[in-house]
Structure to design on (343 residues):
């Protein structure tokens, strides 16, 4: 794959063990939580990207980095990519994953979240949560003495955004200066993508129907970061305008988990925001199509686009594992066990 050659050239130019961003991020993030992309600085975002690329290219170097580390996955929502990518990721670095199904018993229902945190921290090294309420994530983080990772809440999906921008870097070499467009619902995925994009210097355009814009606090924060990094954030209610000159067009389902009762209402509202061949033709010739999956085929995206040559959705899915491995390495101090970082 061409992206592998690009990454190999980059690795040859700057040995990863000498990368100041990675070393600084390792010192800063050890033992910390990731509740939001906003928890990361721009330099920490770049470090996760660089480490993710190296983990993907050189998996043997990290085979024992997390020996004996225990990770618990506590999920209130169904999952394919998130669960398997976290499990495979820690397992290939010597650690162990424990899955705790909360789909029939939301966290905080049987006992308080604080009490759950004070128990679980005694047994494991990191808690990975996939929940409905974002407050569940932040409350667990406030009460646990081990890192807590947001594997999806109704407000953000930071691990998805890490993998998505790692994928964009593979295809374009850098996210800096890219025109990144998201069309659809201004939801949790949209929030994390906005923050990740501007932290890496991308110009972010969000196209949503009236009444479905992203949270104003996220928009404000993203614009503050964009100003610091020399990029911009645009909001529009015109999908065609949003797609103009885009390097990447991204969409998600218009009905997130837990909102199925709104399906009938939302269908006609979001129809003009479907990513189809006409919409993709507004983008640049080199543009890619992205989706966090699962996709509702021929709803928010047509088969022709999802399965077409511009689609990189399965690269995104693969990179969930590599980006999350990089994140776990930094949160759990795993680089101390990697030879090239301990020289």
């Amino acid at each position: 794959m061409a992206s592998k050659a690009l990454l190999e050239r980059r690795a040859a130019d700057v040995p990863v063990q000498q990368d100041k961003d990675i070393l600084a991020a390792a010192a800063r993030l050890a033992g910390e939580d990731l509740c939001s992309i906003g928890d990361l600085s721009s330099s920490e975002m770049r470090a996760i990207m660089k480490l993710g690329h190296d983990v993907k290219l050189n998996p043997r170097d990290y085979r024992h980095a997390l020996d004996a580390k225990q990770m618990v996955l506590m999920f209130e929502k169904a999952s394919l990519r998130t669960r398997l990518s976290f499990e495979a990721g820690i397992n290939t670095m010597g650690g162990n994953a424990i899955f705790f199904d909360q789909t029939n018993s939301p966290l905080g229902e049987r006992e308080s979240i604080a009490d759950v945190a004070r128990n679980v921290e005694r047994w494991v090294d990191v808690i990975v949560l996939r929940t409905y309420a974002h407050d569940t994530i932040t409350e667990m983080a406030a009460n646990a003495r081990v890192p807590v990772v947001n594997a999806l809440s109704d407000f953000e999906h930071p691990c998805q955004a890490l993998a998505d921008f790692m994928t964009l870097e593979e295809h374009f070499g850098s996210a800096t200066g890219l025109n990144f467009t998201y069309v659809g619902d201004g939801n949790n995925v949209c929030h994390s993508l906005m923050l990740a994009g501007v932290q890496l210097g991308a110009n972010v355009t969000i196209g949503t129907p009236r009444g479905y814009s992203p949270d104003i606090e996220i928009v404000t924060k993203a614009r503050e970061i964009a100003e610091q990094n020399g990029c911009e954030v645009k909001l529009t209610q015109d999908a065609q305008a949003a797609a103009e000159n885009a390097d990447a067009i991204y969409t998600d389902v218009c009905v997130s988990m837990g909102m199925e009762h709104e399906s009938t209402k939302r269908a006609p509202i979001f129809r003009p925001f479907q990513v189809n061949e006409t919409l993709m033709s507004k983008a640049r010739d080199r543009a890619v199509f992205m989706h966090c999956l699962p996709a509702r085929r021929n709803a928010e995206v047509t088969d022709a686009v999802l399965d077409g040559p511009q689609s990189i959705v399965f690269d995104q899915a693969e990179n969930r594992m590599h980006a999350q491995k990089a994140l776990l390495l930094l949160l759990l101090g795993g680089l101390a066990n990697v030879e090239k970082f301990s020289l």
Observations:
- The CA atoms of residues 297 and 303 lie 6 Å apart.
- The first strand starts at residue 70 and ends at 75.
